[in-house]
Amino acid sequence: MSTAKRALREGRTNWKKTAVVALPAVLAVGAMASVMAEGALAASFAVSGTSFQVSSGKLTSQGLASYVQVDRDIDGKGHPVALLGIGDATLSDICQAAEVKTPVGTVVFKLTAGGDAGNVTASNLIIDGEDLVGDARFGTAQIGRDASTLDEVPGVKGEKGKFGLQAGDIEVAKVRSHAWSATGGNFRLKGMKVDVSLGGKKCF
Question: What is the pLDDT of residues 93-107, one digit of tens each?
Fold first, then answer.
């Protein structure tokens, strides 16, 4: 067998091998999207142990509520996060990307939607994030409110005596976040595209 046949040319991917590794992840996302569309995905589950990127050109909502909590992976390791509960959210576009180690190398699992296809929408969008960066405008804001009394986003409340904040209508441009989980009811992902590639480009 020639050297050319023994090795792929630089920059090329063995898609047969990658497909075997990536197929379970793609099927899992398809199942998750289906359950999300029915608004039935539980907010509490063991996170994967790998944080991921979330970005959007613009996010608007009629409400926001936030407090600190700890997500745990399957081994019980804790990851402190700011839970961001967003009411009826509209996003101009959305990108989610995670690096996943596989037998054939580090794969970037990337999901995009929106843009020219139309806005992405979700009700009660919940993001457990390590950070959130963007240019924000809040309506009436309440910072330091007891987390157990938050009422801006249905079902989003923390523990009694814990720090919380909430705001009315919000608008955030150039959204960038590193998150451990994201859930939402009635998720509508127009123009959704899933891409799995070795050494692929992430959201930012």
Answer: 999 999 999 999 999
